[in-house]
Amino acid sequence: MSIGKTLLVIEDDADNREAVARILRDAGHEVLSAATGRDGLKILHGGARPDLILLDFWLPDMTGHAFLE
Q: Whole-prediction pTM value?
């Protein structure tokens, strides 16, 4: 029985995004990742239903507040 969850990491810094994703995968979670807010929204609009979204609030294309709206 798997306890892993599906997590979406939205972070524009590639090194940070990959480090967080690696830690979460090593902990047994499925990780979806996006480099921009728009890419994160595309993932969600494509049908993904993550259990948790880790969101950088200072993205190059939109703020975290704009993403949440």
A: 0.91
